[in-house]
Specification:
Elements lengths: L2 H11 L8 H16 L3 H21 L3 H6 L3 H24 L23 H6 L6
Helix pairs in contact: 1-5, 2-5, 3-5
Length: 132
């Protein structure tokens, strides 16, 4: 399960619009950081685009009532945006640590799959994660 889909599931199963506890946020951040550390450079490039696309879609949900409703309402959307920004900052730290810069996207991004979850061989090849 992806970082953001994991958070969305927690929000849905909580039955209300409660904020995640600091402990849960720290746990998600630590797991995300560990996943990033195991990524190759092409995987990190994919993840960069993946996070940007998710953030763009969540921001769209702030002004699209139907999309907001599907994501659990405005408050949940705002929580997800906060969590996505946190993921983006952690990703920026990993890029900085490795002295990498984001590159233009190389291929398709699967909305439900983060870099370590990609199942499509074609997507892996497009991003250089596996040889073509």
């Amino acid at each position: 399960m992806s970082f953001l889909s994991d958070l969305l599931e927690i929000l849905r199963t909580s039955g209300s619009r409660h904020r995640l506890s600091r402990e849960a946020m720290n746990c998600h951040a630590a797991c995300y950081r560990e996943n990033l550390q195991r990524c190759s450079e092409p995987m990190l490039q994919y993840e960069w685009v993946w996070v940007e696309e998710h953030l763009r879609e969540l921001r769209r949900a702030q002004v699209d009532a139907e999309l907001s409703r599907r994501l659990g309402g405005r408050e949940n959307v705002n929580i997800l945006i906060s969590e996505c920004v946190m993921a983006q900052l952690i990703l920026q730290e990993e890029f900085s640590r490795r002295r990498l810069r984001p590159k233009p996207d190389h291929g398709a991004v699967v909305p439900s799959e983060e870099a370590w979850e990609i199942t499509s061989l074609r997507v892996k090849q497009e991003w250089g994660i596996v040889p073509a």
